[in-house]
Amino acid sequence: RVPRRRFGPVPAWRPPDFAEPEDVWILGTSHLSAESADEVERVLRAVRPDNVVVELCRSRAGIMYASDDASGEPLLKSNMFSLGGAKFFGAVNRSINLGGQSALALRLLLAVFSSKISSGANRPFGEEFRAARRVSEDIGAQLVLGDRPIEITLERALKSLSWDEKTKLVISLFRGITSTTDMPAAG
């Protein structure tokens, strides 16, 4: 008997009528590229898949629903690591429960850093995710969150680093956040 681990492999539940997919398409994207968003839309409309898997977890799924107002500000402030929305305190609590306080702190630092990159590039993060959501809705495809929780990823990343490496990472993030140098523009 295999002992159940808190975050171990989960056996896949499959309905009785489940069939393995005949084709799987993988599309690599850049989170800051307008071309990536266009390519996602073009491929999904051409292929018309039954399911679209996005590399997001529940904690980050909100980026697919970030909307633009006349000024464009909310999109430039959205990022891959943000904690936001109406359920902010629930998101913070979930982050602490899943990854611990250190992972939450790293997530917040990465959120500020990625917002700075997005603003410097004058491009919102994750436009390819928003394109995938829009087209999935248009063609009737099921949208699937296909990533493990970011909190677990960050916790594992932190545990893999030595204290020296953790210190260097935090210093690098703070330097990036406080730097007055403009970030390079995205393609």
TrEMBL record:
InterPro entries: TraB/PrgY/GumN_fam, TraB_PrgY-like
Identification of the protein by name: TraB family protein
